[in-house]
Amino acid sequence: MKKNELIIDDTKLDALKSLGPIAVLMGGNASEREISLESGQAVFDSLLSMGFDAVKIDTESQAITSLQAIKPVFAFIALHGRGGEDGTMQAVLESLSIPYTGSAVLGSALAMDKVRAKNVWRGLSLPTPKYLSLTEDSDFVEVLEDLSGTAFVKPAEEGSSIGMSLASSVEELKQAYLSATSFGINIFAEKLVVGPEYTVAILEGYILPSIQITTAREFYNFEAKYSDDDTGFLVPSGLNEKDESQLQSIARKAFDSLGCRHWGRVDFMQDNLTGEFYLLEVNTVPGLTSHSLVPMAAKAAGIDFNHLMKIIIDLSYEANR
Q1: What is the pLDDT of residues 62-100, one digit of tens each?
Q2: pLDDT per residue over 156-190, tens digit each?
Q3: Label partner for 21 (CA 20 to 30 A): which of 98, 186, 206, 314?
Q4: Are 7 and 1 contacting, i.e. CB atoms less than 8 angstroms apart?
Q5: 283, 292, 316, 320: which is the annotated catalytic residue?
Q6: For this structure, is 226 an active site residue?
Q7: Would you list the domain boundaries of the chain?
Q8: What's the pTM value of the predicted model, to 2 decimals?
Q9: Where do the H-state alpha helices sit in 147-275?
Q10: Is there a catalytic annotation at residue 283?
């Protein structure tokens, strides 16, 4: 695929069909396991419908043994969260010389760790909300004051808003920290940005239309993502041309700064008062069900789900060989 174009080489993809099985990696042990199973099934069904020799592998156990037995010529990673999106599976696949979709080890690891990602962005003067790492010895009074009185507490290495909560008092902050420690020891507090949430999907050199997300909940949490019927998605987002261009430019810089490649999604908040966009995180293996955000943005650009799968494979296969 050429930069800034969504042209795929069907001849290469047809050749790939004859080389051997494509492993769809899904499930795993992370807290997003059930969502990963849904993404993996959607990818598997799509690949089968297009004539690929696809095989599902649930990486919950014996992942390496399964890969060695099946000997796939390519792996489509549909794993969300730790163990699949953090560089671990990418390193396994590289050790087995199996090409795979998406970002490599470093980009995956950096994007998965929100604190390290924000450290990179801060060093490059890319906008991200003020943040402070939390430990049991933190001065919670000082933390809340530094973050202007309201903070998001987040596990640094979780996705889908798992373990996140808002705190506007010292007691709430302490409780939010304790709750977040159920999902790891790397916890941080981030200044609340009040305004609309946006997401931007990237397919190598091509950036898909932004999506604005609305929810009746306190924030776009796990339930708002996966179970609420009234969560709203505006695509295209309704931004004017200048703001859309600015949002896409920041997304591109954030994605590239972490060493990410091929495809992913960048999430933002926009400040209601200033209009400034703030980076939240980069997702290197976003959801891939038919109602997930990247397929939604692709559809708005005239790309159906099967075509999206072909684009991701085409982007990734040659680059990994």
Answers
A1: 999 999 999 999 999 999 998 999 999 999 999 999 999
A2: 887 656 778 899 999 999 999 999 998 888 899 99
A3: 206
A4: yes
A5: 283
A6: yes
A7: 10-102+304-320, 111-127+194-299, 131-191
A8: 0.91
A9: 170-180, 222-226, 241-257
A10: yes
